[in-house]
Design goal:
Layout (H helix, E strand, L loop, with lengths): L1 H18 L1 H6 L5 H28 L8 H5 L1 H12 L8 H12 L9 H14 L4 E8 L4 E11 L5 E13 L10 E3 H14 L2
Antiparallel strand pairs: 1-2, 2-3, 3-4
Helix pairs in contact: 1-3
């Protein structure tokens, strides 16, 4: 009975913490929402790992007990490391340096079309020419960097296929807990990010 009440209380508390996270975070207790969510997520991960090990030991008939501390410790440590990593400036991250280098080599400092802009462009051309088509493909350079290849073409009044290809566009993923500028940055965002840093006095 006590265990059932504990799980019910945990579910209700988790639900309300997620639902009112913004409210809890900013009013009336700064960061209270994030801290409580961190504690609750740690409890849920601990319970999940406890169940996993219980099932493994049961299936393989292992007569052994694992210390609760060992089940509890990995997740909070991982989250704290991730939280700390989120404060590392982008300029210090090797992946961002590579992304910046690729953009410079590609000479992609002009406004680069992202998927949203291409779709908008496509919609505008559709009104003029119904034969216009475009295709966007992404190739991984590494885990956080992608090369974006955009191909769009249409038939003009002389029935000639006009083809345009932008193959020097790159995107980069900020994997920090808190994105410093955008979660997904394109080449054009590098300059915007640096301007923002200068305004902040970094």
């Amino acid at each position: 009975m006590k265990q059932a009440l504990f799980y019910l209380f945990l579910v209700i508390l988790t639900f309300y913490n997620i639902t009112y996270l913004t409210l809890l975070t900013f009013f009336p207790f700064p960061f209270f929402g994030w801290i409580s969510l961190f504690i609750l997520s740690t409890i849920w991960v601990y319970l999940f790992l406890k169940l996993v090990f219980y099932l493994i030991f049961k299936i393989f008939n292992i007569d052994k007990k694992i210390k609760k501390f060992y089940l509890f410790l990995p997740y909070p440590l991982f989250m704290l490391l991730w939280f700390g990593y989120s404060f590392v400036p982008l300029e210090w991250q090797s992946s961002f340096k590579e992304f910046e280098s690729l953009c410079e080599k590609a000479d992609s400092k002009e406004v680069i079309y992202d998927a949203k802009n291409i779709i908008s462009l496509w919609d505008n051309y559709k009104k003029i020419n119904k034969n216009i088509l475009f295709n966007i493909t992404e190739q991984y350079v590494d885990f956080r960097i992608k090369k974006i290849i955009i191909l769009w073409y249409y038939k003009d009044s002389k029935n000639t296929i006009q083809e345009y290809k932008i193959d020097n566009t790159y995107s980069w993923l900020d994997i920090g807990m808190f994105a410093k500028y955008k979660r997904k940055m394109i080449c054009f965002d590098i300059q915007k990010y640096k301007e923002l840093q200068e305004k902040r006095g970094y």
